[in-house]
Amino acid sequence: MDIEIPQGKRTKFYRFFEILPAALSYGALLLMVVLSVFSPFLASVYLLTIVVLLLVKAINMAYRIITGHRNLEGAMKTDWKRWLEQLENPSKSYAALKSDPKSISRYRFSEHSENLRLMSAAEDGYFPKPSEIDNAVIIAAYNESYETIKPTIESIVNTTYDNKKLIVFLAYEERGGEPIEKTAKRFQREYKNIFKAFEIVKHPKDLPNEVVGKGGNITYAGKKLKEYCDDNQLDYKNVLVTTLDSDNKPHKSYFSCSTYEYIVHEDRKHLSYQPVSLFLNNIWDVPAPMRVLATGNSFWNIISSMRPHLLRNFASHSQSLDALVEMNFWSTRTIVEDGHQFWRSYFYFGGNYSVLSIGVPIYQDAVLSDTLPKTLKAQFIQLRRWSYGASDVPYVAEHVFTKKRNVPFFDGLFKFLRLLDGHITQAFQAPMVSFGGWAPLIVHSAASRSLVAHQLPMVISYIQQVAMVGLFITIFLSLKMLPPRPARYKKSKNIFMVLQWVLMPITSICYSSLASFYAQTRLAAGKYLDKFDVTAKTSIQEVDLAKQRRRKNKNLG
Questions:
Q1: Does 555 reside within a domain?
Q2: pTM of the model
C-alpha cells in the first residue's frame, strides 16, 4: 500500500486537515476573546473548564512521573545481560530461578519467570535464541565534530552486549563536506576491529523524492545494511536495528534489554522498541532556559513510557530489519521521520503495530551552541521541528477517513483525536492559562461588575498553586537524576538548578507554544518545512575555545 507523504500539490481534503491544527489552536484563543466581548460569564466558564481539565492532566502526569521514575530506576538496576543469557537455555534457567527465593522481590521478576516458562514449553525455533540475534546501529551524522561523535561510539563499545554481535553504520551527509568525511574515515580506522562490522556510508545530496533531513540519510544507510546482511547471509528477522543521533549515548544495558524484549515478544516484527530519551549529557553546561526545557522534555518521555496505548516513536528507537525492509525503511519526505515512523508502520501493518517501552534510557545532549544568542535560536529551531509533527494530522486523517483506511475505524479515530489534541494543547495552553483570566476584564467594560469574571484571575491563580505540587515533584526528581556535577562548577551551581524553574512560564510560552504556532502556521499556509535544521551540538570545550577566540579577536581589534 501507499504509505508515503504526498509531495507537490495536495488534495482539498488533505489541505483541510493541514489547516485544521492551526485553525483550532488560534480558534481556542480567539474564542476566549469573542466570549469576553459578548459574555464575560461564558468566557469565564470556558476558561475555567480548560484550566480544570489541565489540572486533572497535571495530577495524572505527576502520578506518572513518580511511577515512571521508579520504573526507570528499576530497569537501570536490572542485570539485563544475565537475563538475556538465561534465554539461551530457558528450561535450565527456569528451574534455577524457581529455587532462588531472593529473586522474587526483584524488578519484573514474575514477568521474567513467566517468559522463561513459556519459552521452555514452546517448540524449538518458536523463540529465537540470543546467540542468533545481531544488533545493527545506524548513527546519523551531518557535520558534527570528532569530539561530539566519539562519546556516542564509545558508549556503544561499553555496553554489556557483545561487541562482536554489533554491526555499526556511521551514516554521514555528503552536504556535510570534507570535514565529516575525514572524521568518518578516522572512526572506521579506529573501530573496524572492535565490532562485528563498522561501516561508513555517505548519503548523497539531492536524491529525488527526498527532503533535506535525517530520514533520507538513515534510509540510505538501512539499504546498505540490507546489502551487508545479504552478503553475509544474515536473516533479516534476526537483526534488530537501532537508530542514534550523533550525540546519543545508550545506557550500558540498552542492547541487552532491547534484545531481551525482542526475543520474548511473539509478534516481534510488529513492534518497535522505545527507550526513554533523557536530555542529560551536558545538562550542567547549558544555559538555564535550555536546562528547564531539556528537563521538561526528559520527564515528558518518562511519562510517555507509562502510557503504552499512547506511546509513539521518538528520536532513537529499535525495529526489526525484516519489518524495515518490507516497508522500505523510514520516510524520506518529512523532517520528523521518528514520530512519523509510528504512523507509517501502523498503517502499513493494518493497525497491527505498537511501540513498546523498554525502560532503560538513551542519553542525549541538551541544545548548546558557542554563544547564548545562538543557543536560544537553536533551541527554538529544534522545538519548531518537533512541533512540525502536526504534519502527521492530514496524513493520519487521509488513512482513517478515506478509502485508504486499512485499520479499525474507532482505533484510528481515537489515535487521530489524541494526535490532534496533543498539538492543539501544546500551542494554546500556556498563553491561555497565563493571560486568559484577564481577557474579560480587558475587552469588556462591564466585566468588573461580574463576580465570576472579576474573581477569575484569582481562581486561576489558586488552581495553579495546586498544580505547583507537580512542579515540586519534577524539581525533586530532576535533582535526583542529575549526573555528577563536573569539577569545574562550584557547589553553588546546585542552587541555580532549583532557581531555574522560575523560568518555566517564560519557556513554555516563548518556546513550546510559539514553536507550535509557528509550525502549524507554516503547515496551514502550505509553506512546508522541508529542510532538517541540524540542532547545535557543541561541547563545553568548544564553547570555551570559541570564547577565547572572541576575546583574542577583540583584543587584537
A1: no
A2: 0.92
